Amino acid sequence: MAGNGGEIRVHPVGVFEQPLESEEEAGLPVLLLRDEAGREFHLPIGSCDGLAIHLALTQQHVSRPLTHDLALRLLEKLSGQLQRVVIDAYSEEGCHATLSISTPRGPQLLEARAGDGVALALRADLPVFITEEVYARARGPSNSL
């Protein structure tokens, strides 16, 4: 279950509308993640990320590449490759992930929104990891961040 340094491998299951808790949160997308033990939790994400993740999970193709497709193509053209996505932090503004990228200049780390990281990982056919700390907070009393 645990990956490197207290990380848990999780699988994106689907994107859903957030339950109506307040007017400002109404309809915001939530990504449902499940770990290998079957435990689930919700990760709030942006609308564009939600659409990109939904399209990747349902294997729908669009006629023109989306931003996440373009990002992976740019990496490839520049001889880089996405290696790993770890959801490793959250703040008042939302969840964050670290993207590990191999480049001709050596390994690079890039901070991204968690939804962008998941969308990229799905398109690159990579697993997604979450740190034990973020996982514990996500599994808190409300079962969401």
Describe this structure as you would to a colleague.
- With 145 residues, this protein is of the alpha+beta class.
- The protein has one domain: Bifunctional nuclease domain, CATH 3.10.690.10.
- The protein is 27% helix and 37% strand.
- The protein contains 4 helices and 7 strands; from the N terminus they run E-E-E-H-H-E-E-E-H-E-H.
- It has helices at residues 47-57, 67-77, 114-123, 132-138; strands spanning 7-17, 29-35, 40-44, 81-91, 94-102, 108-113, 128-131.
- Strands 3-2-1-7-4-5-6 form a 7-stranded mixed sheet.
- The longest helix has 11 residues, at 47-57.
- The chain is globular and about 40 Å long.
Query: Which regions contain 5 or more consecutive residues with pLDDT less than 50?
Result: 141-145
The amount of helix comes to 25-40%
Distance between the termini: 21 Å
User: What's the CATH architecture name?
Assistant: Roll
Helix-strand string: EEEHHEEEHEH
Oligomeric state of the chains?
single chain
Mean pLDDT: 85
Structural class: alpha+beta
Spatial strand sequence of the major β-sheet: 3-2-1-7-4-5-6
Q: Which fold does the CATH topology refer to? A: Bifunctional nuclease domain
Beta-strand percentage range: 35-45%
The biggest beta sheet is recorded as: 7 strands, mixed
How many structural domains in the coordinates? 1
